[in-house]
Amino acid sequence: MAEATGLDRIGIPVCMAVRPNSGMLAVSQGKGISAAHGGASA
């Protein structure tokens, strides 16, 4: 789980979940009104 909120100018909380043990590299991104919501969405 990574927080990528600081990579934009708007400031919407964005989180990224990486699953390296899957058959292929799988990445999910989620946005929300708080960091907790973004993490749950990812």
UniProtKB/TrEMBL annotation:
Keywords carried by this UniProt record: Plasmid
Superkingdom, taxonomy of origin: Bacteria
Protein name: Uncharacterized protein
